[in-house]
């Protein structure tokens, strides 16, 4: 057996089920689930139509590299979205469709970590649990970079020593960050790109929340633009991971992409050829249609903006507006996120995710403790009802 299994934590939602298994709600309120970030906005009709129109592809094995049309649509989107010149992203060599970012973020560690003694995979803390599991099962040790309230929930990359960076083979970053909603600045991204060149590690930039943000005029920056600003036109050692799950409200489609350094993409394609996870042709056709349209994204973003704004107002300053994404990172009264989660389920019939389940305790400090994550993915009426219950619970 892979020895990394011994160090895996139970997945957060398994821990949540265990935490609530003996809790009963006696008040008769319908359950509203804010624990899981599964978008529930109506998927765009153009995507459904493209799926149906492409069902003839069921009779063919799909290519792991994806269709020319899908790669071209992704490259065009990256160039438009990040202000890159036409031709800055080569669809043939720098783009690879994947079955959602979850499996790709896991697989990239298996591809790039060389399993040498002392190998490290760095990540923010709290984090998307895939990063930690991928590191452990690739034979590396995680290097946790805490995101603490005193630093505005931003990871303190400067606190990592040069010696520690020399052991890092892969750095996961997440901007907008799950769960805090913080966004890395262009200066921070350029600092990390320069570190990667200096210490020869790969950056896996998880940007799957990047299309949900409060100001249409100020979209979150991305790693590829940071590379270009530094003159690294080949995106050396950098990969961006992107998904349609959040952007287009189709988590069940399992469609995303990886783009960046052509040398890494070439090796990742070889890995994935053996891994066996090519996107079906009908998924590729629907994905190309989705990446080519921005109207449905803007409509969805406006709904999230209304839900988040209403929640911030109702909670009376207890939590700030996220810079990106659809989650609120709420400090809980008394600081016990586990007890608060149980009380909220029992008395308000709300399911939320304890922050301590999304982080790893280091030196006795869990950076997620004392917070709960609220994913405002339900429709506006349910979100309004949930926040009303939450505000009442906080008031009591």
Detail the topology: elements first, then pairings.
Layout lengths: L11 H9 L11 E2 L11 H9 L14 H14 L13 E4 L2 H12 L7 E6 L3 H9 L3 E6 L15 H6 E7 L11 H14 L2 E5 L16 H7 L8 E6 H4 L8 E5 L1 H14 L5 H11 L3 H20 L12 E5 L5 H12 L1 E2 L1 E2 L16 E5 L4 H16 L1
Parallel strand pairs: 1-10, 3-4, 3-5, 5-6, 6-7
Antiparallel strand pairs: 2-8, 7-8, 9-12, 11-12
Helix pairs in contact: 2-11, 3-11, 4-5, 4-10, 7-8, 12-14
Could you characterize what this model shows?
The strands form three sheets. Strands 2-8-7-6-5-3-4 form a seven-stranded mixed sheet, with helices on both faces. It has helices at 12-20, 45-53, 68-81, 101-112, 129-137, 162-167, 186-199, 223-229, 244-247, 262-275, 281-291, 295-314, 337-348, 380-395, and strands spanning 32-33, 95-98, 120-125, 141-146, 168-174, 202-206, 238-243, 256-260, 327-331, 350-351, 353-354, 371-375. Helix 3 (68-81) runs parallel beside helix 11, helix 4 runs parallel beside helix 5 and helix 12 (295-314) packs parallel to helix 14. The protein has two domains: 3-42 and 296-395, Aspartate Aminotransferase, domain 1; 45-294, Type I PLP-dependent aspartate aminotransferase-like (Major domain) (Aspartate Aminotransferase, domain 2, 3-Layer(aba) Sandwich), CATH 3.40.640. By secondary structure, the chain is α/β, with parallel strands linked by helices.
């Amino acid at each position: 057996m892979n020895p990394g299994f011994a160090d895996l934590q139970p997945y957060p939602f398994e821990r949540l089920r265990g935490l609530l298994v003996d809790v009963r709600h006696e008040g008769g309120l319908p359950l509203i689930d804010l624990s899981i970030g599964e978008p529930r906005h109506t998927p765009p009709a153009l995507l459904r139509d493209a799926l149906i129109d492409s069902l003839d592809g069921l009779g063919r094995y799909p290519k792991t590299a994806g269709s020319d049309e899908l790669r071209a649509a992704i490259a065009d989107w990256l160039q438009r979205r990040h202000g890159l010149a036409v031709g800055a992203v080569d669809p043939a060599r720098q783009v690879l469709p994947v079955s959602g970012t979850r499996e790709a973020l896991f697989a990239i560690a298996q591809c790039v970590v060389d399993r040498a003694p002392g190998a490290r995979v760095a990540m923010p803390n709290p984090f998307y649990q895939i990063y930690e599991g991928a590191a452990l099962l690739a034979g590396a040790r995680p290097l946790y970079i805490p995101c603490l309230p005193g630093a505005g929930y931003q990871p303190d990359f400067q606190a990592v020593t040069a010696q520690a960076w020399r052991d890092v083979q892969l750095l996961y970053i997440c901007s907008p960050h799950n769960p805090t909603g913080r966004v890395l600045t262009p200066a921070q991204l350029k600092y990390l790109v320069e570190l990667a060149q200096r210490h020869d590690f790969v950056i896996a930039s998880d940007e799957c929340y990047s299309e949900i943000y409060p100001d249409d005029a100020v979209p979150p920056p991305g790693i590829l633009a940071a590379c270009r600003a530094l003159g690294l036109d080949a995106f050396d050692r950098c990969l961006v991971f992107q998904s349609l799950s959040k952007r287009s409200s189709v988590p069940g489609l399992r469609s995303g992409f990886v783009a960046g350094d052509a040398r890494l993409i070439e090796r990742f394609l070889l890995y994935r050829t053996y891994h066996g996870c090519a996107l079906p042709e009908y998924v590729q056709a629907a994905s190309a249609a989705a990446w080519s349209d921005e109207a449905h994204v803007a409509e969805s973003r406006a709904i999230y903006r209304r839900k988040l704004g209403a929640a911030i107002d109702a909670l009376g300053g207890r939590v700030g507006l996220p810079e990106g994404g659809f989650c609120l990172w709420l400090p809980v009264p008394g600081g016990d996120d586990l007890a608060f989660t149980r009380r909220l389920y029992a008395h308000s019939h709300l399911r939320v995710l304890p922050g301590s389940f999304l982080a790893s305790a280091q030196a006795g400090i869990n950076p997620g403790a004392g917070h709960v994550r609220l994913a405002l993915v339900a429709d506006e009426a349910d979100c309004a009802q949930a926040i009303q219950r939450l505000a009442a619970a906080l008031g009591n």
